[in-house]
TrEMBL record:
Disulfide bonds: 42-122, 75-80, 128-329, 207-239
Principal localisation: secreted
Organism, scientific name: Coptis chinensis
GO biological process: one example: response to oxidative stress
Keywords tagged on the record: Calcium, Disulfide bond, Glycoprotein, Heme, Hydrogen peroxide, Iron, Metal-binding, Oxidoreductase, Peroxidase, Secreted, Signal
Name of the protein this chain belongs to: Peroxidase
Active-site positions on this chain: 73 (proton acceptor)
PROSITE patterns: PEROXIDASE_1, PEROXIDASE_2, PEROXIDASE_4
Top-level taxon of the source organism: Eukaryota
Chain residues that bind Ca(2+) 1: 74, 77, 79, 81, 83, 95
Length: 335
């Protein structure tokens, strides 16, 4: 597994240290989250999550991107409350059936394994929402990316929102303004948008998520000419006009399993896979400048990614007496 380079510059170290005050007490609408939340109630919690994630990623490299994405899809809908993990039941319509998640979201079995190990060590103590937040950080580190202190103390929701999942999670074919608006709705800005989009430095996308760029970008039967045409020709080989919807393609074809800034370099070369990737360069001067900065400076990207992940992880968490600590992540207690 690719590990983060040991030769981290002094600038990087100081920059990450500067995050410490921010991380140690994240004020949210629901209360405070802080990294030491389980230090007394379940001191092994972080190591347990790290161990299970490491085994899963060693077995399948792709799982790092899947767990990171799962955290995104959780936080954008109703806040970071583990709602994305709930299965259908008599009282719940699962978010797993939404357009962004159906045949796409994965890693649920790994979260089950994490939760099982946590329950064995500390019954009824660590929430599924916190376990997922830790798993996203550990996945990033295992892929060679930055680390950060994860503020903890979230509770799990007792419900899900299929409509929220369908309407709030940014889609690959959304316009830049639509994507930015969806970020602003949950308290994130254009800097967070560009930095967090950098998670596409690892993982895959399905043919159905970018087919329109190859054949019918604007509904006029013409391809997206902002996509490098030699790259487009390569993509067409396994992403035909019809069929092959689930065929997988690297989001970053240069270093597909390594968390780095090649994602931004690819965009500058007109080789961003998704429309939502390429519009960061073509539709906004502010985002264009950030793409250029992160393409030039990997450390700058890493520092901002860590900051933005902490910020995203703090979207409307349930704290205190709100929510519950689920015994299993797929269903609410007493169901």
């Amino acid at each position: 597994m690719v590990k983060m380079a040991l030769s981290v510059s002094t600038l990087m170290v100081f920059s990450l240290l500067s995050l410490a005050p921010l991380c140690f007490s994240q004020k949210s609408k629901g209360g405070y989250l802080y990294p030491q939340y389980y230090d007394h109630s379940c001191p092994q919690a972080k190591e347990i999550v790290k161990s299970v994630v490491a085994k899963a990623v060693a077995k399948e490299t792709r799982m790092a991107a899947s767990l990171l994405r799962l955290h995104f899809h959780d936080c954008f809908v109703k806040g970071c409350d583990g709602s994305v993990l709930l299965d259908n039941s008599s009282s719940i319509i699962s978010e797993k059936g939404s357009n962004p998640n159906r045949n796409s979201a994965r890693g649920f079995n790994v979260v089950d394994d994490i939760k099982s190990a946590l329950e064995k060590e500390c019954p009824g103590t660590v929430s599924c929402a916190d376990a997922l937040a830790l798993a996203a950080r550990d996945s990033t580190v295992l892929a060679g990316g930055p680390s950060w202190d994860v503020p903890l103390g979230r509770k799990d929701s007792k419900g899900a929102s299929l409509s929220g999942s369908n309407n709030i999670i940014p889609a690959p074919n959304n316009t830049f303004q639509t994507i930015l608006t969806k970020f602003k709705v949950v308290g994130l800005n254009v800097v967070d948008l560009v930095a967090l989009s950098g998670s596409h430095t690892i993982g895959f996308s399905r043919c159905t998520s970018f087919r329109q760029r190859l054949y019918n970008q604007s509904g006029n039967g013409q391809p997206d000419y902002s996509l490098d045409q030699s790259y487009a020709s390569q993509l067409k080989k396994n992403c035909p006009r019809s069929g092959g919807d689930q065929n997988l393609f690297f989001l970053d074809f240069v270093t597909p399993t390594k968390f780095d800034n090649f994602y931004f370099k690819n965009i500058l070369a007109s080789k961003g896979l998704l429309n939502s990737d390429q519009v960061l360069l073509t539709k906004s001067e502010a985002s264009m400048e950030l793409v250029k900065k992160y393409a030039e400076n990997n450390e700058l990207f890493f520092v901002q990614f860590a900051k933005s992940m902490v910020k995203m992880g703090n979207i409307s968490p349930l704290t205190g007496s709100k929510g519950e600590i689920r015994k299993t992540c797929r269903k609410i207690n007493n169901s």
